[in-house]
Amino acid sequence: MTRAVIVDCLGRVWGKRLSTVDVIGAGPRSVAGILEKHKVYVYIKPIEEFLRLKEKIRTYDILMLSAMSTDKLAVMKAIKYWKNYGKGPIILGGPIVFGYHSLNDLEFNIAVYGEAEKTLDELLELGLKDAEIPPLKELINVKGIVFNYNGKLIFTGRRDLLKRGELEQYEPSTRSIIGYEQYWAYRIYVEVVRGCSNFRRPLIVAEERGGCKKCSTCFTGPMAQRLTCPLNIPPGCGFCSVPALYGPPRSRSPRFIIEEVKELVKYGVTRIVLSASDILDYGRDVLVEPDPLTDPRYPPPNIEWLRKLFDGIFNIDEISKGEVQVLLENTKASLVNETTAKLLGEYFKGSPIHVGCETGSTKHALLIGRPVTPREVVEAVKLLRKYGLKPYVYFIHGLPGQNRETVKKTLEVMDCLRRYVEKITIYRFTPIPGTAFEKYPIPPPARADKLSKAIVDKARKINMEFKKQLIGKTVVAIVVNPYAKNTIYNIAYTLPHGPVILVKNARRYYGFKVLVKINDIITDRLVLGGVVKVLSNVRLRALKWK
Fold first, then answer.
1. Taking 60 as the threshold, does the pLDDT of residue 402 lie above it?
2. What would the CATH number be for the domain defined by 3-163?
3. Residues 123-158, buried b or exposed e (16+ Cβ, 10 A)?
């Protein structure tokens, strides 16, 4: 039997896992499911674990890599390691392939562009399931791939996106989760919706291309017409590749998601995240079929589908008892109202939920393609807090169009949010291939730019205020690996989710669910704690299912 190893480079950047990266994305498991369907034995390893395999690599016939555009150095490191210890085809996938023009210096055989399911199906049938690269005459006819021919990268063109019914024919692997050494403590992402409904365009790009044609299609036009723009501007927020790469939302039916969650629970996972660009997009695409869902506001959320999904998940015994936590990922403020906030609070009270704001300026939000105003974000956060959720709000510094006025407005919005948010998350703008902002320069780090520094400092101050309120409180957490910067401490991940805790002299608690008392604040991201009580050994429960 052919054996393949999938190396998860997602979010690794330099090829090294940071202490706060406790995420297992849905992408690698989806790829593993396709391989399993074709009777290929598959194993997933995050890159930091893959780089320790050495001679064991020789037992595998195919290397598959999943990465984002920012993970290129990690990919290079994995390929070099493979060539030292193993042999066989190298297949690259994930958002990194969206910018395939910059991949000339990577030694791969085939890169899969966009959705992997049908493309991999075809490649496996053409010989990849036997660890053979198909001949050129066959390869050139496979849509959705990039390969090197005589020193030149050949792109065979985009493959049509999967329709909702087609997507459901592919089952993500659950068995492969055990390839992650500490999967029992990590957040396991389960895809519920693929794509994004924001098909507006950043007006700042339109202005630079001679001005918006004022067609208003991406704001008020029919759903199907919003797929294209007269100025060929990629859809969505200018910094995000999801709409351009994965298209409009397509929801998986509740029964498929519930079954996947049940299987993961059997393997002993403790934290599951319902993955979507917007959880409230779930089922909205069904309401507009056969048209694509390209409006971030209309129709309103599909309450029937949401409730059916949540009911099915929370009726799973381990979840209903609180032994396994189910979390939400993101939501757009444009779909949050009294009804939807109350619904989310009914099932996810006490859980975090992420809401994008990015800028505090209404004008700037329009310029960068945001589907909501900052004021709507504030109102949505208030509602989510009212019904017991813990909102985390995103902002980005260094965005195109950032100036004194936009920063002033951003600081004002942060002040409005400080009473309602659990955390403010700040990112530095990074131009991503395939997005409307891909050709914009990388901004200087916050420490080198007064305006960006003001945003970062404000967020840090607000986050520290919240963290200080935790001192003396107890939280449930799972103790994992030693802290890389100081191995006298172990890392503990809060349940269901919260600040990362450092626990001194806690190696004997590795793999245990414990009650931790917060003793001090280290940074706005890290707190110091001590074990008060041992609750259970989660590793034992996980291991018996292997």
1. yes
2. 3.40.50
3. bbebebbebebbeeeebeebebbbbbeeeeeeebee
Spatial separation of the C-alpha atoms in residues 526 and 228, rounded to whole Å: 44
Pairing verdict, β 526-537 and 512-521: antiparallel
Residue in the block written with tokens 């939280």: 475
Q: Quick one: CATH architecture of 474-543?
A: Beta Barrel (2.40)
Residues contacting residue 25 through CB under 8 Å, at least 6 positions apart: 8, 10, 11, 66, 189, 275
**Tens digit of each residue's pLDDT (9 = 90 or more) over 311-331:** 999 999 999 999 999 999 999
Given a contact cutoff of 8 angstroms between Cβ atoms, the answer to whether 87 and 102 are in contact is: no
Q: Give the SS3 label for residue 498.
A: coil
The angle at the Cα of 285, spanning 282 to 290, to the nearest 5 degrees, equals 160
* Gap between the Cα atoms of 321 and 367, Å rounded: 46
Residue written as token pair 């969650």: 261
pLDDT > 60? residue 129: yes
CA 546/CA 540 separation, integer angstroms? 10
Grouping H, G, I as helix, E, B as strand and the rest as coil, residue 352 is strand
Residue type, 483: Y
What are the sequence ranges of the domains in the chain? 3-163, 184-468, 474-543
Q: Over 164-233, what HEC string results? A: HHHHCCCCCCCHHHHHCCCCCCCEEEEECEECCCCCCCCHHHHHHCCCCCCCCHHHHCCCHHHHCCCCCC
Phi, psi of 358 (to 5 degrees): 70, -45
Phi, psi of 316 (to 5 degrees): -70, 130
Q: Are 379 and 410 in contact (CB under 8 A)?
A: no
Interval 364-377: pLDDT, tens? 999 999 999 999 99
Comparison of pLDDT for 396 and 496, the residue scoring more: 396
| pLDDT of 18 | 47
Q: What is the mean pLDDT of the chain?
A: 92
Strands 23-24 and 187-191: parallel
CA distances from 99 to 74, 111, 202, 398 (A): 16, 11, 20, 21
Topology of domain 184-468 in CATH is: pyruvate-formate lyase- activating enzyme (3.80.30)
Question: pLDDT tens, 198-219?
Answer: 999 999 987 777 667 677 788 8
Distance (Å, whole) CA 144 – CA 315: 39
**Single-letter amino acid code for the residue at 335:** L
Q: Give the rounded distance of the alpha carbon of 86 from its chain centre.
A: 30
Strands (E) located in 227-331: 250-251, 271-275, 325-328, 330-331
- pLDDT value of residue 117: 95
- Of 205, 193, 250, 196, which Cα lies nearest the Cα of 369? 205
